[in-house]
From TrEMBL:
Domain of life: Eukaryota
Protein name per the record: THAP-type domain-containing protein
Pfam families to which the protein is assigned, alphabetical: TNP-like_RNaseH_C
InterPro entries (alphabetical): TNP-like_RNaseH_C
Source species: Aphis craccivora (Cowpea aphid)
Domain Transposable element P transposase-like RNase H C-terminal as annotated: residue spans: 32-61
Coiled coil: none
């Protein structure tokens, strides 16, 4: 800490000049030589204290003891590689169940080939999805923002995503939202108008998984903002009372 306090802006400049001019360095990253270690330490303390931005002396000492005496878990690079390449996790199992259920629906004839985008570069699929309707109500925002490069929404894709969104709104507060949305979508009778039946299962599966991922991130972000507002109001109210 004492050494960190002795680091000044001038010493950082002198050290950078020495490395650049005398040691033939191409560039110098100064984050670790100009950042006050005390500032880093107090930042860690504030993060560990959660909503309490100004911990009391007992709280500060307790957090300091907890942080300095916690043994961080040690993972080998091979362990991380095994975790990231493990295909048997819960997410993959859910996607495989969704793929199986969609495949069964197509085989039973309860689903007609539908409209959804596919990752593979299928020219026919791309051409079909680019056939948007400029007069559709969903195209109003595109028409206002477009400078000639935006693609108007495909009617069938819009209808399909509207069904997924409606189902998500019903179960967004549940823990198993993914399973419930999939069950709700596949159990209800609706027609998916897609002209290439060989891509139906893969395309529908990709779209549902991708849409739910993005939707859950956006929903979580909005909920976190609400919690921050609630926490801010509670702090304001707490200042009115003597503790």
């Amino acid at each position: 800490t004492n050494k960190g306090l002795q680091v000044t802006i001038q010493s950082t400049i002198d050290l950078s000049k020495h490395l650049l001019e005398n040691c033939n360095f191409e560039y110098v990253l100064t984050a670790k030589i100009c950042q006050d270690p005390l500032e880093k330490f107090f930042g860690i303390i504030r993060q560990a204290s959660g909503p309490n931005d100004h911990p009391t002396t007992p709280s500060f000492l307790h957090l300091n003891f907890t942080i300095t005496n916690t043994d961080a878990s040690k993972l080998l690079l091979e362990d991380l590689r095994e975790i990231f390449h493990n295909k048997t996790n819960e997410r993959y199992e859910k996607i495989n169940r969704l793929r199986t259920k969609l495949d069964q629906l197509v085989e039973d004839g309860t689903w007609e080939p539908s409209d959804i985008f596919h990752k593979k570069q299928c020219a026919s699929c791309i051409l079909f999805l680019k056939s948007g309707n400029i007069n559709h109500p969903a195209a109003e925002i595109v028409a206002l923002k477009s400078k000639g490069q935006l693609i108007y929404p495909n009617n069938f894709l819009f209808e399909f995503l509207s069904i997924v969104e409606h189902s998500f709104e019903k179960f967004c507060m549940d823990y198993d939202v993914f399973e419930k949305v999939v069950e709700d979508i596949t159990e209800n009778n609706f027609n998916l108008k897609y002209t290439f039946s060989e891509h139906t299962v893969d395309v529908a599966c990709e779209i549902i998984v991708y849409y739910l991922q993005i939707r859950l991130r956006q929903f979580s972000y909005q909920e976190n903002l609400k919690q921050k507002e609630v926490s801010r109001e509670k702090k304001k109210i707490s200042k009115l009372y003597n503790t």
